[in-house]
């Protein structure tokens, strides 16, 4: 386990007379624990397929293992309930900043309210995170002057923007649905990821030798938590219809 200390109380300044006695408050700290949860992906293939293939099957398997582990991590960092604890976790996840008036649609005003529900220090490095379907709907929104809120990137490699803030999408972020979070906005650097060493890849020739097969396995140990829930705010859809 790796312990991260988080300030639970903040010092307050107080006026005193010249020569007056100083007052000292007690500082308290909470602790966030990053553990080491094991994630793995494993398959087995026939010896014939492995050694007679027309392309480098072993290299292809390792490449696909990497994608599988990355996808599992992305899903867990957003939706995880403890292995790791995701941004959308009911307890320990991001705070709700705005609740939409509709269960099925997001308005431009609600996106503006979401931005300013986040404390000013976190807005400096803030970004949007949402589903592609949600982003498609937001791209159609206009302000009172008929201008789209969406601002396409003018430079290769730079993210597109909503109301001046970078917008990123993930297929694992929920689509718009009643009572569910539809957009996250905040400084995601406060989501701490604990990688334990590097990923390991192994070829298991003996385990399934009696069946004429070869096994492949990839493993890693990782955890993640949002150490400051107030650093990310959620736009949540209205419950019910």
What keyword list fits this structure?
241 residues; alpha+beta; seven-stranded mixed beta sheet; three-stranded antiparallel beta sheet; globular; single chain; 21% helix
Low-confidence stretches: none
If you compute it from the alpha carbons, what radius of gyration comes out, rounded to the nearest whole angstrom?
24 Å
Question: What percent of residues adopt helix (DSSP H or I)?
Answer: 10-25%
First-last Cα distance: 43 Å
Largest sheet: 7 strands, mixed
Principal-axes shape call = globular
Overall strand count: 12
**Overall average residue pLDDT:** 87
Identify the strand order in the major beta sheet: 4-12-9-5-8-7-6
Number of helices: 5
What is the string of helix and strand elements?
EEEHHEHHEHEEEEEEE
Which secondary-structure class do the elements indicate? alpha+beta
Looking at the chains present, what oligomeric state does this protein adopt?
Answer: single chain
Question: Roughly what fraction of the amino acids lie in strands?
Answer: 25-35%
């Amino acid at each position: 386990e790796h312990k991260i200390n988080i300030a639970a109380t903040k010092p307050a300044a107080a006026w005193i007379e010249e020569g007056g006695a100083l007052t000292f408050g007690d500082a308290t700290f909470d602790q966030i624990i990053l553990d080491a949860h094991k994630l793995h992906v494993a398959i087995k293939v026939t010896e014939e397929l492995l050694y007679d293939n027309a392309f480098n099957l072993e290299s292809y398997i390792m490449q696909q293992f990497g994608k599988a582990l990355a996808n599992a991590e992305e899903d867990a960092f957003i939706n995880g309930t403890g292995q790791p604890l995701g941004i959308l976790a009911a307890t320990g996840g991001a705070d709700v900043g705005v609740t939409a008036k509709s269960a099925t649609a997001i308005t431009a005003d609600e996106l503006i309210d979401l931005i300013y529900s986040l404390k000013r220090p976190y807005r400096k490095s803030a970004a949007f995170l949402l589903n592609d379907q949600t982003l498609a709907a937001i791209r159609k929104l206009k302000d009172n002057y008929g201008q789209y809120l969406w601002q396409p990137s003018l430079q290769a490699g730079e993210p597109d923007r909503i109301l001046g803030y970078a917008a990123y999408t993930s297929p694992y972020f929920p689509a718009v649905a009643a009572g569910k979070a539809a957009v996250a906005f905040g400084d995601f650097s406060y989501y701490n990821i604990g990688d334990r060493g590097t990923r390991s890849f192994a070829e298991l020739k003996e385990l399934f030798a009696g069946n004429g097969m070869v096994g492949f396995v990839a493993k890693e140990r990782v955890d993640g938590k949002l150490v400051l829930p107030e650093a990310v705010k959620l736009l949540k859809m209205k419950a019910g219809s």
